[in-house]
Amino acid sequence: MKKLIIIAAVIIFSISSLSNATTDYAKRVDGYFYTSLRTHGTWIDIGFGTPVWRPTIIRKNWSPYYYGQWIYTDYGWYWDSAEPFGYIVYHYGRWFYDDYYGWIWIPDYEWAPAWVDWRYNDDYIGWAPLSPYAAFYINIGIHYTYDYYVPYNHWNYVKYNKFCKGNVYNYYAAPKYKYRIFSNTKVRTNYSYYDGRVRNNGIEFDRIRQGVGRTIEKRNIVTVSNPNELTKVRDNNKEIRTYIASSRDLSRDGLRDVKVERSDRKSSLEMSRVELGKERTTDRVNDRKVEENLRVEKKQKIETKRDNTNRTETDVNKNRVEEQKRLQEKQNIELRKSEIEKRNNEVNKRNDVIIRNEQMKRDKENNRKNNTVNNNQRDVRKENKNSAPEIIKQNTERKVEQKVQTKVNENKNQVNQNTSRNTEVRKNDSGSRNETRNNTRENVNNNRTRSR
Question: Potential cystine with 157: which of 19, 126, 170, 317 (Cβ 3.0-4.6 Å)?
Answer without folding.
Answer: 126
